Amino acid sequence: MRLQPHGSRLARKGFLLALCWLSYPCWSGAEAPRRIVSLSPELTEIVFALGAGDRLVGVTMQCDEPPAARAIARVGTFLVPTVELVLAKQPDLVLASPSPGNRRAVEALMHMGLRVVVIQASSVGEARDAILEVSRLLEQTTKGEELARAFEQRIAAVRERVTPDRSPSVFFLVGRNPLIVAGAGTLQDEMIRLAGGKNVGAMAGHGWPRVDLEYLLAQDPEVIVDASMGSEEADNGTFWSRFADLRAVRSGRVFVGADSRLLRAGPRVPEAVEMLARWLHPQRVPLVP
To answer: Using one digit for the tens of pLDDT, what is the confidence trace for 245-268?
Structure first.
């Protein structure tokens, strides 16, 4: 199965062109980078997956996977990287993902002459493409192609097992107060479909719409994936017990926890799709430890 980035390639190209700040100088003939700063958790995971984690000299506060990433010096957050901390690491390559929050810092690093590459990774297809792009930059193309091929094969294997006699309805949320759901066009919407489910949040709008309690009750989903973070994540013992009439609660199909595999368009996307498939179709994709 050949995965395609979410939406048409023409739309994707137009989006990237609109972000003119993504342009970076051509560094033809440059040696493979040895000192890398990653400003994106997804890209940090890709560097490690390529076996090049030892080249990372700086990452963001959100770069927590694999565990070895937690020992690397921090250069700010994903949304607000600190230019001075990045410069202090004397990188020969800075990897970043586009975000309105980090735009100013990324532009500043470019203007200072650093080699900065901004890679879009917000869908399943783009996650696969990001693996190939990073592998090219690190001169690890063979490894990158192997990873990309395995990425596609694992998702294809899930699709074969859940091929639809029915698609359970799924309510995927990242916040409870207010209720914030994964809407149409999100990575989570795409992964739910790949796992053989129907995302009821898609009917509420694109991106991350807020919905009211009446919406949740009206949809009465068969499965709830609660990826709420922070203090909301910790309060998992009492919140859903208030909704005993919901099908997902009655059947014990409420899955709570902000597992980063469900939230990042990185090399672990196939694991996330497999996880969702086990929750949605346990008869076809048995639960495993």
So the answer is: 999 999 999 999 889 999 999 999
Instruction: Return mean pLDDT, the chain.
Output: 88
Nearest by Cα to 69 from 97, 99, 95, 37: 37
Report, in angstroms and rounded to the nearest whole number, the Rg of the chain calculated over CA atoms.
Answer: 20
- Position 31 scores a pLDDT of 79
- pLDDT for res 55: 98
Partners of residue 223 on adjacent β-strands:
170
Residues of the chain under the 50 pLDDT cut: 1-2, 4-29, 288-289
Please say whether the beta carbons of 151 and 121 come within 8 A: no
| 47 and 56 Cβ atoms separated by less than 8 Å | yes
The C-alpha atoms of residue 151 and residue 137 are separated, in whole angstroms, by 19
Six-digit token string for 24: 């970076």
- How long is the chain? 289
Look at residue 134 in the predicted model and tell me its pLDDT: 98
- Exposure string over 173-212, b if 16+ CB within 10 A, otherwise e: bbbeeebbbbbebbbbbbbbbbbbbbbbbbebeeebbebe
Show Cβ contacts of residue 67 under 8 Å, excluding neighbours closer than 6 positions: none
Q: Cis check for the bond before 66: say yes or no (omega within 30 of 0).
A: yes
Instruction: Specify burial of residue 37 (Cβ count, 10 A radius: 0-12, 13-18, 19+).
Output: buried
Structure tokens at 185: 């066009």
Does pTM surpass 0.90?
A: no
- Least Cα distance to 267 among 124, 110, 165 occurs for 124
Rounded CA-CA distance 18/109 in Å is: 20
**Measured distance CA(114)–CA(104) in Å, rounded:** 14
Q: d(Cα 57, Cα 74) in Å, to the nearest integer?
A: 9
φ and ψ of 69, to 5 deg: -65, -25
